[in-house]
Design goal:
heterodimer; A: about 475 residues; alpha+beta; D-Maltodextrin-Binding Protein, domain 2; five-stranded mixed beta sheet; three-stranded antiparallel beta sheet; 20 helices; about 50% helix; about 10% strand; globular; B: about 325 residues; mainly alpha; MetI-like fold; 14 helices; disordered N terminus
Chain lengths: ~475, ~325
């Protein structure tokens, strides 16, 4: 009796295992992830087949994944429909999420070998994804003209290029901006800063804003890790070294000076204290101190300006100035960065069609009128010029800002190394910025901790 | 013995003692098959969604798997890093222990107090019970967490009240000393489910004991400590175990309200585990953390059981 009982149990167990095994194409074991991603020869095969595809276009379904706001989902969907209307053999399987969920979604898909054909990429993750051979080189599509980049300035394309291979096409560019509320400056009798202003100018200005208006000069975003990088960029250095195995600078003084300035301004009430700041950090544009009238300036990437200005409502005027630079720096802090990319994943079955679509997305004025520079200022010159006249004043302001920055910008720094997300989440805020600003450790101790912990994470890239 | 008894019972009165052993075993195999078929949806789901993932996660705990690509076996590195290197891990342990040690007794005390208030037959009492249970139903929800942000915000309800009496309220979420208390108060406020269990326990206490105590001259305080409390200890013990486990796994409140900040003072273990797994994708490390949590929960529960002999009173005779 016992044996039969046991056999039965085994049968059920095996049934269970079989049920689990039925899934594997979707969830291969972790170790197989890299093998599962298609070999790089694949595009070549597809490319040689290309003429026949063109002669009698077979129906293709392109899966596509992006992050963004509801507005972006709506307009992107609209452009996908427009493309299908022009190319009836191409249909789309779109998926989208918010930024906060995006990397969970896409990493899980990558682990399961289920990546979409086209995915939105970010400069911060590009290195990691290409080094794991999850993205396809687009060089041959650019060479063959399928992916038409003839109208795109080379330095705009540089952001998606790694070791001579273009892996991702920027969907728009942006730059770090200070949004300034004109009325507040006007009433206080303060001048709008010059584009080449310095952090010293900023400190003086912040004190004056506090004295004359009583509100904060800035929100709580100055201790952001993007500021750290821009700070060292101005000295001709970068936060990380070339192969991403350690921090890229020797001298901690600029960072110490920067944090000291923040503390000084917090003490005189020109910046929110650490305690006050927690309530605003990470809050959307609607809840930013600038929009709420509690601060005279706000630090944002320029493609977020539209959201901030819209949240502020009518009757308020804003102006954009580039990020201040250190007095003793060699070059501007500000640089032109691709806001986001489209990349074709290495598992894509129809990369040719995907490339054609990205080409349309980049070069079609019609499509970009719908997209309305929501992903940043378009990279194709004709599209940019064509759009400029039709844009609302706020979007036009970001166009002018990018043009202004372009005149005097630092070269685009390399993409962030693998482990950057780890540093941002587990080092920068919790064991450097917060302990320093809450006065638990001194700034000098803080920068040492930052260096030690960041180096430890980056050292893993040596393997 | 008992097996035969069950078999006999399952066949009811028709079962005959003359049935041969062979025949009985055949029948019981059929019975078993039927039984397993009936539970098979659960069994299969348990294997596929719980047992197998658990085994895989145990294995991942010894790797540096990060979702995206290659992984390698790293032995005990994850555990070493956790206990000796990772400062945030220590912060998460401190925050979680503080929360459990303060919030669980507080919640149980509230639950018991309210249960005793509600343990009578006044008009509309069911309405009150439902009302007091409501926070637990909505407790884990995003909406309550958002409301909590409003109440304890710098411009929130609490500070507005303080302003009336001329006190400038602090930034409750911004101050590392007060932030965790907002979550502890929230936990105490969600006393609904232990309250229901207490209420059921209170109903089991025979009225005669109170009457006898009253005749002996006991006041309310005496009869609580001499009658209610001892007879309720098994229930209190059960609630303590359940709420401690619940507390060690706390996640939602900190995830929505404080994100672990400031200074990692509200970085609950489960929140840090989530960050490791789904923000920085250290699946191996997160798996190791999950297994340590499981062991800790097991250990704490075992200690609780051991200590229970000192204070939990089980009625041996029938009441």
């Amino acid at each position: 009796m016992r044996t039969k009982f046991f056999t039965l149990f085994c049968i059920v167990l095996v049934a269970g295992l079989l049920a689990a095994c039925a899934i594997p194409p979707a969830t291969p074991l972790p170790g197989e992830a890299t093998e599962a991603s298609a070999p790089t020869e694949k595009p070549t095969e597809e490319a040689t087949d290309a003429p026949t595809v063109e002669a009698a276009p077979e129906p293709v379904e392109l899966s596509i994944l992006w992050w963004g706001s509801d507005k972006r989902h709506e307009i992107t969907q609209q452009v996908l429909n427009m493309y299908t209307a022009e190319n009836p053999h191409v249909t789309f399987a779109p998926e989208y999420s918010s930024w906060s969920d995006y990397w969970t979604v896409s990493n899980t898909k990558a682990a399961g070998g289920e990546l979409p054909c086209i995915m939105q990429q970010d400069y911060a993750y590009l290195n990691e994804w290409t080094s794991r051979e999850l993205l396809m080189s687009l060089n041959e599509f650019i060479d063959s003209g399928t992916l038409d980049m003839s109208d795109v300035p080379a330095d705009f394309l540089a952001g998606g290029t790694i070791d001579g291979n273009v892996y991702a096409i920027p969907l728009g560019v942006n730059a770090q901006a200070f949004i300034i509320e004109k009325n507040v400056f006007g009433e206080a009798g303060l001048d709008i800063p010059q584009p080449d202003w310095t952090w010293d100018d900023f400190e003086v200005l912040a004190g004056e804003i506090k004295d004359k208006t009583g509100i904060w000069a800035q929100g709580a975003d100055l201790p952001a890790e993007a500021m750290w990088k821009s700070l060292y960029l101005a000295y001709g250095e970068w936060a990380f070294n070339e192969d991403g195995t350690a921090l890229g600078y020797e001298n901690d003084e600029p960072l110490i000076a920067y944090m000291k300035m923040i503390k000084r301004l917090q003490e005189i009430g020109a910046l929110p204290t650490a305690e006050e700041g927690t309530e605003y950090s990470g809050a959307g544009p609607e809840a930013s101190p600038l929009v709420l009238g509690k601060a005279a300036m706000d630090y944002r990437w320029s493609n977020q300006v539209v959201a901030v200005v819209n949240a502020a409502g009518k009757g308020r005027e804003f102006v954009l100035v580039p990020l201040p630079r250190p007095v003793d720096g060699k070059q501007p802090s500000v640089y032109i960065k691709p806001a986001s990319f489209f990349a074709i994943t290495s598992t894509c079955k129809a990369p040719e069609e995907a490339a054609r679509f990205i080409s349309y997305f980049t070069n079609s004025l019609e499509a970009n009128e719908v997209l309305a520079a929501e992903r940043g200022v378009p990279i194709a010159a004709q599209v940019r010029d064509g759009l400029k006249e039709k844009m609302d004043p706020v979007t036009g302001m970001t166009f002018d800002f990018i043009a202004l920055v372009q005149e005097d910008a630092s070269p685009l720094p390399p993409p962030d190394p693998a482990g950057w997300g780890d540093i941002r989440t587990n080092v920068w805020t919790p064991i450097f910025v917060d302990p320093v600003l809450y006065g638990q450790i001194t700034i000098e101790e803080g920068v040492k901790v930052l260096r030690r912990e960041a180096d430890a994470i980056l050292a893993q890239n040596k393997r | 013995m008992s097996k035969i008894a069950i078999d006999a019972a399952s066949r009811g009165n028709t079962a005959t003692s003359t049935m041969s052993k062979k025949r009985r075993s055949k029948n019981s195999a059929t019975d078993n098959l039927t039984g397993f078929l009936f539970v098979s949806p659960w069994l299969i789901c348990f294997l596929v969604f719980t047992a197998i993932p658990m085994v895989i996660s145990l294995w991942l705990a010894f790797t540096d798997y990060d979702l995206l690509g290659s992984w390698s076996f790293v032995g005990l590195d994850n555990f070493k890093r956790m206990f000796f290197v990772d400062k945030r891990y220590m912060s998460s342990i401190v925050a979680t222990l503080k929360y459990v040690v303060i919030a669980v007794p507080l919640r149980l005390a509230f639950a018991l107090a309210v249960a005793m208030l509600l343990n009578n037959y006044r008009r509309g009492i069911t309405l009150y019970r439902a009302a007091y249970y409501a926070p637990s139903v909505v407790g884990g929800s995003i909406a309550v967490a958002v409301m909590w942000r409003q109440i304890f915000g710098t411009q929130g309800a609490i500070n507005a009240l303080l302003a009336i009496v001329g006190i400038q309220g602090p930034s409750w979420f911004g101050n590392p000393a007060t932030a965790i208390w907002t979550l502890i108060i929230m936990a105490a406020w969600q006393f609904g489910s232990p309250m229901l269990i207490f209420l059921a326990g209170l109903r089991q206490i025979p009225k005669e004991l109170y009457e006898a105590a009253a005749i002996d001259g006991a006041n309310g305080w005496h009869s609580f400590w001499r009658v209610t409390f001892p007879l309720l200890t098994p229930i209190i013990f059960f609630n303590l175990i359940m709420q401690t486990i619940h507390g060690l796994r706390a996640f939602t409140q900190a995830f929505i309200i404080t994100e672990g900040r400031p200074l990692d003072s509200t970085l609950f273990y489960a929140l840090y585990l989530y960050q490791r797994a789904f923000v920085t994708f250290h699946m191996g490390y997160a798996s190791a953390m999950a297994w340590v949590l499981l062991l800790v929960i097991g250990l704490v529960t075992a200690i609780n059981f051991k200590l229970s002999s000192l204070w939990v009173h089980y009625e041996t005779s029938e009441v």
